[in-house]
């Protein structure tokens, strides 16, 4: 893993913070997409307030698909989709574990409630 030997022109003998090493390790090992997906799901649970009514979550191509157990909750969330989407992406932007440079799993572009 040669990219760990030199980070941003810093010689190997200097100390590098864990905040710089962990994202590089996740990218190099191919784990950042899976971690980002998990962070999107956790953001949904925190932001929507509908964790107990959520049956399944699926993320693909910027779209978050969420299956709900209650049609009343689903219709209520349908009216709030735009504000939930903004809050969800704000949550992810501030999440230190979310890799914003990952090409496979980025910010949420659309929420689809089922």
Characterize the structure shown:
It is a single chain. This protein is α+β, with helices and mostly antiparallel strands. The protein folds into 2 domains: 1-30, no CATH class; 31-113. The protein has helices at 18-29, 32-48, 71-79, 81-94; strands at 54-60, 63-68, 110-113. It has a 3-stranded mixed beta sheet with strand order 1-2-3, with helices on one face. The protein is elongated, with a radius of gyration of 17 Å. The termini are far apart. The mean pLDDT is 88.
Please write out the topology:
Blueprint: H1 18-29, H2 32-48, E1 54-60, E2 63-68, H3 71-79, H4 81-94, E3 110-113
Parallel strand pairs: 2-3
Antiparallel strand pairs: 1-2
What brief labels describe this structure?
15% strand, elongated, three-stranded mixed β-sheet, 3 strands, alpha+beta, 114 residues
- How are the strands of the biggest sheet laid out side by side? 1-2-3
Number of separate strands: 3
CA(first)-CA(last) distance: 43 Å
Radius of gyration: 17 Å
Instruction: Give the H and E element order.
Output: HHEEHHE
The largest sheet, given as strand count, sense and whether it forms a barrel, is: 3 strands, mixed
Number of helices: 4
Structure classification? alpha+beta
Overall tally of structural domains: 2
Mean pLDDT: 88
Indicate the proportion of strand residues: 5-15%
Helix fraction by DSSP (H/I, runs of at least 4):
40-55%
Shape: elongated
**Parts with pLDDT < 50 across at least 5 consecutive residues:** none
């Amino acid at each position: 893993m040669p990219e760990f030997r030199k980070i941003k022109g810093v010689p190997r003998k200097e100390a590098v913070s864990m905040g710089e090493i962990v994202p590089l390790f996740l990218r190099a090992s191919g784990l950042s997409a899976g971690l980002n997906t998990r962070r999107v799901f956790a953001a949904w649970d925190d932001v929507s307030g509908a964790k107990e009514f959520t049956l399944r979550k699926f993320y693909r191509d910027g779209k978050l698909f969420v299956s709900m157990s209650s049609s009343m909750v689903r219709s209520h969330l349908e009216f709030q989709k735009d504000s939930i989407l903004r809050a969800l992406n704000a949550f992810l932007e501030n999440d230190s574990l979310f890799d914003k440079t990952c090409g496979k799993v980025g910010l949420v572009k659309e929420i689809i409630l089922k």
